Target: EFMT1 methyltransferase
Amino acid sequence: KMDDDDDIPQLSSHTLAALQEFYLEQQQREGMKTSQGFNQYSIGSIEEDWQLSQFWYSDETALRLAKEAVLTAGKGGRIACVSAPSVYQKLKEQDGEDFSVCILEYDRRFSVYGEEFIFYDYNHPLDLPENLLPHSFDIVIADPPYLSEECLQKTAETIKYLTKGKILLCTGAVMEEQAAKHLGVKMCKFIPKHSRNLANEFRCYVNYASGLD
Model:
């Protein structure tokens, strides 16, 4: 008599082990998120979505930019992060510092941050909530999602509306002229790094005497 099992394709033990390992890792990741030890503000707690052109900064870069923002905003200062969620997450980890922060972001996954999250689409640069008053932020940190002049120009409208004056822009080195034209910012010596290497050289630009040189 034929063996009933013959028709069932068998996975090799190697494939099976790899698969089990993958599921286990996934469960652990999810488990970490729900356990109390999970830090919802740590970079990578919300994973990059390449379709939205998202690339998170390395831990060191995010910390350096967050510290720069806190220092520049001053005591009780207000900081806006425009399309720069990894800096926002680092700012939230700065315990005991006296400042407030908002995150303007297209990706609604960041709405887990509650009232500090503001849905933002650079195609509608001034479509902002009424309680976001003009020139109410001591510093605006922005990282436009795309390396195009259109994206920079529209994001620049938002930045100029929000800031009292100080701007910290992170974008490609190729955008240097446009950054100067639309925002009056100059390239810093500090070179931001991402948690994954990007093909495009990335730089920071400011319009004030910063600690990034």
